[in-house]
Specification:
Layout (H helix, E strand, L loop, with lengths): L6 E3 L5 E3 L3 E2 L2 E2 L9 H39 L3 H4 L8
Antiparallel strand pairs: 1-2, 3-4
Length: about 90
């Protein structure tokens, strides 16, 4: 049975963290304190990747909306879109 505590105590009386290592592999989170410049550079790179992702996401949604509108346009009766005399306002 695994306790709900983040530390499990061994027979030697010392605490072993279960959060740092899971099944022999290192945790996904880096625990060291980074220098300020390194952290700022990583944040700037992350923000640039996020901006590119959002731009691509918006472009994809615009393409999807255009495809839906084109499908609707080509699958609708032409008389509903262009009634007789529509060019003579």
């Amino acid at each position: 049975m695994i306790p709900d505590f983040p530390f499990s105590y061994t027979g030697a009386g010392r605490a072993v963290s279960r959060c740092v290592r899971t099944s022999g592999r290192a945790a996904m989170v880096e625990t060291r304190i980074k220098p300020h410049r390194e952290q700022v550079a990583e944040d700037a790179a992350r923000e640039e990747r996020r901006r590119a992702y959002r731009r691509n996401e918006v472009f994809g949604l615009v393409l999807l909306a255009a495809a839906i509108c084109l499908w609707w346009l080509f699958h609708t009766h032409a008389g509903w879109i262009f009634p007789p005399g529509w060019w003579r306002w």
